[in-house]
User: Which sequence fits this backbone?
């Protein structure tokens, strides 16, 4: 199986100030981060499921990497449901803005390289 993520729907749920939230979304969808105008979606293609461990190819900004993660998988009424929280290193996908890996002198302005992707799927 596979799924596609519409990056034009990115939301910041923890920023309550509307102006700052809009500014943040504008920046994270810009060329500094996900470059959504050029790469409007990301995708994941499952290559293997072993027990609760899922392996597959994640593509972000045209770069594909193999990743593995644990998932809660269940079957009910002929449909498969899966839930997972996946930690992704953004620098693997050429998202370098504010990363200490690439900008040593950035100091306390550094942005964490890892982000979490929370996935909840039901098969059709």
Assistant:
């Amino acid at each position: 199986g596979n799924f596609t993520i519409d990056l034009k729907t990115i939301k910041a749920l923890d920023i309550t100030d509307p102006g700052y939230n809009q500014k943040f979304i504008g920046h994270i969808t810009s060329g500094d981060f996900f470059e959504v105008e050029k790469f409007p979606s990301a995708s994941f293609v499952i290559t293997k499921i072993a027990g609760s461990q899922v392996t597959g190819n994640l593509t972000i900004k045209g770069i594909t990497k193999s990743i593995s993660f644990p998932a809660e998988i269940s079957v009910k009424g002929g449909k498969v449901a899966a839930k997972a929280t996946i930690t992704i290193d953004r620098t693997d996908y050429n998202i370098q803005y504010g990363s200490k890996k690439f900008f040593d002198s950035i100091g306390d302005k550094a942005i964490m390289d890892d982000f979490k992707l929370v996935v909840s799927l039901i098969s059709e």
